[in-house]
Amino acid sequence: MNDSIEFTPKEKFQISLYEDPDGLFRRAIGRLVWWLAPSLGLVAYSFYCGEISFGVLGYGLLVFRSVYQISKLKAGLLRTAAIFRKYEAQLQRKQDAA
């Protein structure tokens, strides 16, 4: 039973992200810009050269990123719920031991 309430490496990593909120924010903005800049560049180039395929590709990048982000959000929420369950189980175990 003790093994089931120990945090996994992914859960430990997620917990560590909240120790430095500014760093987490900077990484999130960096990832956003990494996807947004090429997408906007492709759309702008589409308007410049009149070729719609570049605009579709730029829009496709944003759609792909959104779908990917939603899937990661779901996994993160499930992991956060597991962290809370394990933390509560650890607190309960400590209270029972006292």
Describe this entry's structure for a reader.
With about 100 residues, the protein is mainly α. It has one domain. The chain contains 3 helices and no strands. Helix 1 (about 10-15) packs across helix 3 (about 50-95) and helix 2 (about 20-50) runs antiparallel to helix 3 (about 50-95). The longest helix is centred in the last third of the chain and has 46 residues, at about 50-95. The radius of gyration is 21 Å and the shape is elongated. The two termini are about 20 Å apart. The mean pLDDT is about 90.
How many domains in all? 1
Give the end-to-end Cα distance, rounded to a whole number of Å.
Answer: 18 Å
Secondary-structure element order, as H and E?
HHH
Bin the helical content. over 70%
Mean pLDDT: 90
Percent of residues in beta strands: under 5%
Helix/strand structural class: mainly alpha
- Which runs of at least 5 residues are low in confidence (pLDDT < 50)? none
